[in-house]
Amino acid sequence: MIFVFWLIFAILVGFYASSKGRSGIGFFIIAIVLSPLIGFIIALMISPVNAQMEMNAIESGEMKKCPSCAELVKVEAKLCKHCRSELA
Fold first, then answer.
1. Spacing of C-alpha 18 from chain mean position
2. What are 7-64's pLDDT values in tens digits?
């Protein structure tokens, strides 16, 4: 029974790390080997990979890059909130 909870929490650690742009499988393995608690603490302490998170937002269709300043804006935006340029 403990192994089942260990496995479930290790999977959750992997999903959390993946949401921060990190390797979900790598953190799953860390959580299995060390412990889910230690894996989660490590995942909390590391910073997100912004480039990976930006790419995921663009691929999902939620965001697009402004052609003038290259900042992310919502797809529905008509004006860039960063540089105030008009978006097509």
1. 5
2. 999 999 999 999 888 999 999 999 999 999 999 999 999 888 888 888 888 888 889 9
Contact 80, 66 (CB under 8 A): yes
Query: Residue 71 in 3-state DSSP?
Result: coil
pLDDT of residue 36: 94
61: left (phi over 0), alpha (psi -120 to 50) or beta: left
Q: How far apart are CA 56 and CA 27, in angstroms?
A: 19
Query: Can you give the residue ranges of every domain in the chain?
Result: 1-47, 49-88
The token pair at 4 is 């089942």
**What are the DSSP calls for 17-56, one per residue?**
HHHTTS-HHHHHHHHHHT-HHHHHHHHHHSPP-HHHHHHH
Report the distance separating Cα 27 and Cα 45, nearest Å.
13
